[in-house]
Amino acid sequence: MDDLIIHKYKDVWLVASQAEVKGGPTLDAPPVRIVPHKNKNRLKEVLLELFSEKVPIVPRPDFNDPKQLLGIRAEALGLNSWRAFVKGARAFYLQKMKDSLIIEEWPREKWSFVADPIWKKEYAAGELDKLIDYLIRKTTHDPES
Asked: Partner of 92 for a Cys bridge, out of 6, 98, 101, 134, CB 3.0 to 4.6 A?
């Protein structure tokens, strides 16, 4: 897997695999990994684990199912709605390229996140530690971009 969406909600990171839907978009795939905000080593372990996974292909879910509307990230936190999750979360898109890692923050728009970066930063492929340090600093000292 080369693309990951990472969310920060209050004092934790939420990271999940992506699954490709037959004839459709990608979706979060369980399980959601919940990592304490400042636990750099665990966040690195989770990211490396997910980068090594293959993207599963799943059948198209029933998007009217209430569980699909809630989302597995909100469910993992025990929230009752996706809106509550989005209201308190920040979204980051991480791409693993051949020679680089690119991290960007996606803004909230109504009750979702939009792939229109607020900021973008690039690191060499072997600089995951530097990227994580930056992300922790950015979300500690700049709580809301």
From this structure: 6
